[in-house]
Amino acid sequence: MPGEILILTADGDAHAERVATILSARGAETVVFDPADFPSRARITAAYGPRVRRTLHTDGGLLDLDALTAVWFRRPQPPVAHAELTDPAVRAYAEGECAAFAGDLWDQLDCRHVPARRQSIMLAQRKPSQLALAGRLGFDLPSTLVTTDPDEFLDFYDRHDGRIITKPLDDPRPPGDVGRYAEAVSTHDVIHADAIRFAPVIVQEYVAKRVELRVTVVGRAVFAAEIHSQESNHTRFDWRRYDLGNTRHQPHRLPAEVARRCVEIVERLGLCYGAIDLILTPEGRYVFLEVNPSGQWLWIESATGLPISEAICDLLLHGPRKETSDVVRCA
Question: In the CATH scheme, what architecture does the domain 211-330 have?
Fold first, then answer.
């Protein structure tokens, strides 16, 4: 039976809008809300006593949070204080209080949480922990170093004959665009290696690529797509720099064991959704890079026809498949 679903995400999220449209067509009541609108353009109330009552009041009307069947933590932004609060200290205090209240409220919701509860999502995003778990599950991994020690970095550089890349430990595009994508280490980087002492960096051996793979796991369904990033120097080290019109995409049929590991790592991270980046080497090895609990998929769906949005709707409406041995490879 169709339910009532709350999607928490940033304003203008085309992925959320696509899923909301499909859910509405299936008869589900769907509300898309950006927590950044709280408290300026939305009101939240929680009453406790003999009867608990929690409501969200937006321009679209009043939502009974206790009637929800699912909440999707798509890409929510933190609360933003009223513009009337101009003092930085006061704004920071107000935003902190709003974030504490709203965050606790989302955690209280007695319904399906996709891809997981907030704490599980935060833990699942830790890249070094992902690598450790992936290794235990049998994934092939690139040789990796996480360090703030310039000498360790230079030793790693020498051991791999300079064929290494660096990538950020957290978001590759933090506020102010300070940071970097996955990039080859240059002579300039080596000269300025001492700067590593200011912040940790992930350093990995460069893994030769036949193609890059974006594997989207939705419950126990696995959607794998090839990204032919090696056809352009622009995308050689990180396909996120790509030009969609000039980068070939097509479905990929993963070996059963690799598909099983993809589902298992998502589940072991406490998630029911994850976008996994793999490399398929010229020799046929599948090398694990990372998992994103909020990874994008619309461009993959558009380029390949893989029905990822429909699968996400199934997940929000019905939850993950119950079968523990049935991994569905979709290609």
Answer: 2-Layer Sandwich (3.30)
